């Protein structure tokens, strides 16, 4: 009997998690019945037991949340746009390759996207080819921040060093030269975001 009870608990937990991941809110008892095949009166009894144990929040018709579901609220969905050159600029990213969920505590507030590092110009600050760079989407940056910048219609990842009358995009690798943007090229320059976190590739 204990094994049977635990199987029902596990089925309900799994469905609540699945439903919350899919819809962003907890399922009703009717939803759980339809999704698991467990009779609604049994679902209600088990949800009440889970509520009393502190495992879930359960408000009857208002649906349910469990501890796992609560953490989803504190996450953000971030699109991945492919590669960005850590070297010479490359063609702009355009296609979303996938979307990943990141804890809001990792990135803070704002709108974000992810690019994969390609090249070695930022290796001295620990950005290697294949690493994922989480970028906060914005069109301004503070001096010294690592930015994704558009230069002459192409993108690159560099340290942003504005000077009077020009902008220096500095690589963190002594084997690479600065990219200096000045004169007419200033009209074709734009900051597209600021790096906020590096997710290291497994090697």
Can you summarize this structure?
With 203 residues, the protein is an alpha+beta fold. The chain contains 5 helices and 11 strands.
Q: How would you describe this structure to a colleague?
A:
With 203 residues, the chain is of the alpha+beta class. The protein has 2 domains: 2-72, Winged helix-like DNA-binding domain superfamily/Winged helix DNA-binding domain (Arc Repressor Mutant, subunit A); 76-199, Ribbon (Umud Fragment, subunit A). 27% of the residues lie in helices and 35% in strands. The chain contains 5 helices and 11 strands. Strand 8 and strand 9 form a beta hairpin. The protein is elongated and about 75 Å long. 24% of the residues are buried.
CATH class of the largest domain: Mainly Beta
Residue fraction in strands: 25-35%
| Strand line-up in the sheet with most strands | 4-3-5-6-11-7-8-9-10
CATH architecture of the largest domain: Ribbon
Radius of gyration: 24 Å
- CATH topology-level name of the largest domain: Umud Fragment, subunit A
Helix and strand element order: HHHEEHEEHEEEEEEE
Measured as a percent range, the helix fraction is 25-40%
Assign an overall shape: elongated
When the domains are counted, the total is 2
Low confidence ranges? none
Strand elements, count: 11
């Amino acid at each position: 009997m204990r094994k049977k009870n635990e199987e029902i608990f596990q089925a309900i937990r799994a469905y609540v998690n699945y439903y919350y991941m899919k819809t962003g809110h907890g399922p009703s008892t009717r939803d759980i019945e339809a999704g698991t095949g467990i009779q609604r009166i049994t679902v209600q009894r088990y949800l009440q037991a889970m509520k009393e144990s502190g495992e879930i929040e359960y408000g009857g018709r208002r649906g349910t949340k469990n501890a796992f579901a609560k953490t989803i609220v504190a996450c953000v969905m971030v699109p991945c746009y492919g590669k960005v050159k850590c070297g010479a600029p490359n063609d702009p990213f355009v296609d979303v390759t996938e979307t990943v969920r990141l804890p809001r505590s990792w990135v803070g507030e704002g709108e974000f996207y992810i690019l994969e590092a390609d090249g070695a110009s930022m290796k001295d600050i620990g950005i290697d080819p294949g690493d994922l760079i989480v970028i906060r989407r914005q069109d301004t940056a503070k001096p010294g921040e690592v930015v994704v910048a558009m230069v002459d219609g192409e993108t690159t990842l560099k340290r942003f060093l504005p000077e009077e009358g020009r902008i220096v995009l500095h690589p963190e690798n002594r084997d690479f030269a600065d990219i200096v943007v000045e004169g007419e090229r200033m009209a074709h320059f734009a900051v597209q975001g600021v790096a906020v976190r590096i997710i290291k590739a497994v090697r």
